[in-house]
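Reopening: C-alpha coordinates for the 5-O-phosphono-beta-D-ribofuranose complex, inputs below.
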Amino acid sequence: MLKVAVIMGSDSDFPTVSAALKTLKEFGVPAEAHVMSAHRTPAAACAFASSAREQGFGVIIAAAGKAAHLAGVLAAHTTLPVIGIPIKSSTLDGLDALLSTVQMPAGIPVATVAIDGAANAALLAVQILSLSDEGLAQKLKAYKEKMAAEVAEKDQKIMQEAAQI
Ligand code: RP5
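Re-run output (same inputs, fresh job):
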Protein backbone atom coordinates (compact mmCIF):
# COMPACT_ATOMS: atom_id res chain seq x y z
CA MET A 1 0.00 0.00 0.00
CA LEU A 2 1.17 3.54 -0.69
CA LYS A 3 2.41 5.40 2.39
CA VAL A 4 1.32 8.78 3.75
CA ALA A 5 3.99 11.30 4.69
CA VAL A 6 3.08 13.46 7.67
CA ILE A 7 5.42 16.44 7.71
CA MET A 8 5.29 19.07 10.43
CA GLY A 9 7.12 22.37 10.58
CA SER A 10 8.18 21.93 14.18
CA ASP A 11 8.03 19.34 16.95
CA SER A 12 5.74 21.83 18.72
CA ASP A 13 3.09 20.88 16.11
CA PHE A 14 3.18 17.22 17.14
CA PRO A 15 0.46 17.25 19.83
CA THR A 16 -2.00 18.43 17.16
CA VAL A 17 -0.60 16.38 14.29
CA SER A 18 -0.67 13.14 16.29
CA ALA A 19 -4.44 12.91 15.61
CA ALA A 20 -3.60 12.37 11.92
CA LEU A 21 -1.18 9.59 12.74
CA LYS A 22 -3.75 7.96 15.03
CA THR A 23 -6.41 8.06 12.32
CA LEU A 24 -4.06 6.64 9.68
CA LYS A 25 -3.17 3.83 12.07
CA GLU A 26 -6.86 3.06 12.66
CA PHE A 27 -7.25 2.53 8.90
CA GLY A 28 -4.07 0.47 8.68
CA VAL A 29 -2.38 3.01 6.40
CA PRO A 30 1.41 3.12 6.71
CA ALA A 31 2.67 6.57 7.67
CA GLU A 32 5.98 8.26 8.19
CA ALA A 33 6.32 11.40 10.33
CA HIS A 34 9.04 14.03 9.97
CA VAL A 35 9.91 17.51 11.15
CA MET A 36 10.89 19.67 8.18
CA SER A 37 10.53 23.38 7.80
CA ALA A 38 9.97 25.49 4.70
CA HIS A 39 12.02 28.21 6.38
CA ARG A 40 14.50 26.46 8.69
CA THR A 41 15.33 23.42 6.51
CA PRO A 42 14.13 24.36 3.03
CA ALA A 43 16.60 22.08 1.20
CA ALA A 44 15.51 19.01 3.17
CA ALA A 45 11.83 19.80 2.59
CA CYS A 46 12.35 20.21 -1.15
CA ALA A 47 14.46 17.05 -1.42
CA PHE A 48 11.84 15.03 0.47
CA ALA A 49 8.98 16.21 -1.72
CA SER A 50 10.99 15.74 -4.92
CA SER A 51 11.58 12.05 -4.20
CA ALA A 52 8.37 11.26 -2.28
CA ARG A 53 6.61 9.49 -5.16
CA GLU A 54 9.57 7.20 -5.87
CA GLN A 55 9.89 6.55 -2.11
CA GLY A 56 6.43 4.94 -2.17
CA PHE A 57 4.30 7.77 -0.82
CA GLY A 58 0.84 8.43 -2.23
CA VAL A 59 -0.15 11.53 -0.28
CA ILE A 60 1.72 14.18 1.70
CA ILE A 61 0.15 15.83 4.74
CA ALA A 62 1.89 19.04 5.76
CA ALA A 63 1.20 20.80 9.05
CA ALA A 64 2.58 24.20 9.94
CA GLY A 65 1.72 27.29 11.90
CA LYS A 66 2.37 31.03 11.66
CA ALA A 67 3.58 31.98 8.12
CA ALA A 68 2.80 28.43 7.05
CA HIS A 69 4.54 27.88 3.73
CA LEU A 70 5.40 24.22 4.26
CA ALA A 71 2.47 22.65 2.39
CA GLY A 72 2.91 25.02 -0.55
CA VAL A 73 6.64 24.44 -0.80
CA LEU A 74 6.20 20.66 -0.68
CA ALA A 75 3.44 20.90 -3.31
CA ALA A 76 5.77 22.91 -5.53
CA HIS A 77 8.21 19.97 -5.57
CA THR A 78 5.88 17.01 -6.14
CA THR A 79 2.97 15.86 -8.28
CA LEU A 80 1.49 13.93 -5.32
CA PRO A 81 -1.61 15.35 -3.64
CA VAL A 82 -0.67 17.59 -0.71
CA ILE A 83 -3.04 18.18 2.19
CA GLY A 84 -2.32 21.19 4.38
CA ILE A 85 -3.13 21.51 8.08
CA PRO A 86 -2.93 25.08 9.35
CA ILE A 87 -1.74 24.90 12.95
CA LYS A 88 -2.94 27.25 15.68
CA SER A 89 0.47 28.14 17.11
CA SER A 90 0.51 31.91 17.12
CA THR A 91 -1.07 35.02 18.57
CA LEU A 92 -3.34 35.09 15.51
CA ASP A 93 -4.98 31.79 16.53
CA GLY A 94 -4.10 29.99 13.31
CA LEU A 95 -5.76 32.41 10.92
CA ASP A 96 -2.30 33.36 9.64
CA ALA A 97 -1.51 29.70 8.97
CA LEU A 98 -4.91 29.08 7.36
CA LEU A 99 -4.47 31.90 4.86
CA SER A 100 -0.82 31.02 4.17
CA THR A 101 -1.79 27.40 3.47
CA VAL A 102 -5.04 27.80 1.56
CA GLN A 103 -4.29 30.76 -0.73
CA MET A 104 -2.19 28.89 -3.28
CA PRO A 105 -1.69 30.25 -6.78
CA ALA A 106 -3.24 28.42 -9.74
CA GLY A 107 -1.23 25.38 -10.77
CA ILE A 108 -0.05 24.32 -7.31
CA PRO A 109 -3.02 23.09 -5.28
CA VAL A 110 -2.97 22.36 -1.55
CA ALA A 111 -6.11 20.72 -0.15
CA THR A 112 -6.43 22.67 3.07
CA VAL A 113 -8.39 21.36 6.04
CA ALA A 114 -9.60 23.36 9.06
CA ILE A 115 -7.24 24.96 11.56
CA ASP A 116 -5.85 22.03 13.60
CA GLY A 117 -7.93 19.64 11.44
CA ALA A 118 -5.47 16.77 11.66
CA ALA A 119 -8.01 13.94 11.77
CA ASN A 120 -9.76 15.23 8.66
CA ALA A 121 -6.43 15.53 6.86
CA ALA A 122 -5.82 11.84 7.53
CA LEU A 123 -9.34 10.89 6.44
CA LEU A 124 -8.89 12.81 3.20
CA ALA A 125 -5.60 10.99 2.62
CA VAL A 126 -7.35 7.64 3.21
CA GLN A 127 -10.10 8.64 0.77
CA ILE A 128 -7.52 9.47 -1.89
CA LEU A 129 -5.73 6.14 -1.38
CA SER A 130 -9.07 4.29 -1.41
CA LEU A 131 -9.48 5.14 -5.10
CA SER A 132 -7.12 2.28 -5.84
CA ASP A 133 -7.68 0.18 -2.70
CA GLU A 134 -11.01 -1.58 -2.24
CA GLY A 135 -10.14 -2.59 1.34
CA LEU A 136 -9.76 1.05 2.33
CA ALA A 137 -13.01 1.92 0.54
CA GLN A 138 -14.82 -0.70 2.65
CA LYS A 139 -13.24 0.64 5.85
CA LEU A 140 -14.35 4.16 4.98
CA LYS A 141 -17.91 2.92 4.41
CA ALA A 142 -17.90 1.18 7.79
CA TYR A 143 -16.48 4.32 9.43
CA LYS A 144 -19.31 6.46 8.08
CA GLU A 145 -21.95 3.90 9.07
CA LYS A 146 -20.57 3.81 12.63
CA MET A 147 -20.58 7.60 12.80
CA ALA A 148 -24.21 7.73 11.60
CA ALA A 149 -25.23 5.09 14.16
CA GLU A 150 -23.61 7.14 16.93
CA VAL A 151 -25.50 10.26 15.85
CA ALA A 152 -28.78 8.32 15.72
CA GLU A 153 -28.12 7.12 19.27
CA LYS A 154 -27.46 10.71 20.42
CA ASP A 155 -30.66 11.81 18.69
CA GLN A 156 -32.70 9.27 20.66
CA LYS A 157 -31.06 10.33 23.91
CA ILE A 158 -31.65 14.05 23.31
CA MET A 159 -35.28 13.41 22.32
CA GLN A 160 -35.82 11.64 25.64
CA GLU A 161 -33.98 14.32 27.63
CA ALA A 162 -35.86 17.11 25.84
CA ALA A 163 -39.19 15.47 26.68
CA GLN A 164 -38.30 15.71 30.40
CA ILE A 165 -37.93 19.52 30.31
C1 RP5 B 1 5.98 26.95 12.31
O1 RP5 B 1 6.20 27.81 13.36
C2 RP5 B 1 5.81 25.59 12.91
O2 RP5 B 1 5.04 24.76 12.09
C3 RP5 B 1 5.14 25.89 14.23
O3 RP5 B 1 3.72 25.79 14.13
C4 RP5 B 1 5.53 27.32 14.51
C5 RP5 B 1 6.38 27.52 15.72
O4 RP5 B 1 7.51 26.69 15.66
P1 RP5 B 1 8.49 26.57 16.90
O5 RP5 B 1 9.05 27.94 17.14
O6 RP5 B 1 7.66 26.07 18.06
O7 RP5 B 1 9.54 25.57 16.51
O8 RP5 B 1 7.00 26.96 11.38
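Residues 9-10, 12-13, 37, 64-66, 87, 89 surround 5-O-phosphono-beta-D-ribofuranose (CB under 6 Å). Residues 36 and 42 are 8 Å apart (CA to CA). Marking as resolved unless the reporter disagrees.
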